[in-house]
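Contributing new records

If you add data, match the layout below exactly. Sequence lines come first and carry their own label; structure lines follow with theirs. Keep one chain per record. Anything else will be rejected by the validation script.
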Amino acid sequence: MYNPICGLARDGLPIIGFFVLAALVCALLRWPALAVVFLLATAFSLNFFRDPDRAAPAEPGIAVAPADGVVCKMGEAVDPLSGETRRVVCIFMNVFNVHVNRAPIDGTVSEVRYIPGKFFNASLDKASTDNERNALGIADADGGRWTVVQIAGLIARRIVCKAAVGDTVARGMRYGMIKFGSRLDVYLPRDYHPVVTMGQKTTAGVTVLARKAD
């Protein structure tokens, strides 16, 4: 759905190419200071848009983290798709994290909704309700309803979501990204409970985020 090219996210290639070209032009024009600036920008972009291959755990009855980052909030909140109050786990991504987002579970995309908004710091509580965001609804094989919300942050200004209604997603499958710092909120079905803790670091597609109750 959103496969990388040479270990890099597709949406980053034009940006990386621009910085490489700018560095070469500045070097040819003998502008060393600018050439160094663009070389540093190239290095930063290569790091930001990296997209390593990962193998999701095969254990049944679990969901994995959809993003690299740190768990910044846990509790209950209103699901933007259903309007119900549900358990939520929020993951904050800084500019040094891998920013490609992955599906937390196997299922079928039931809804995709873009919600315009502002660009507050994504670590703030009000980011969940006030910031620009994209909500992805996924129905799992047992009828559980999941909502994964990509939230733009203070610096992030573009949300990429390649999933469409009717698509089948697999646990750990790439489906989009958010550029330059952001956050993901995951609303869990009633029969799942979080197994991460506040402040825990997560790895997209690998860290077990939630487990189905026995």
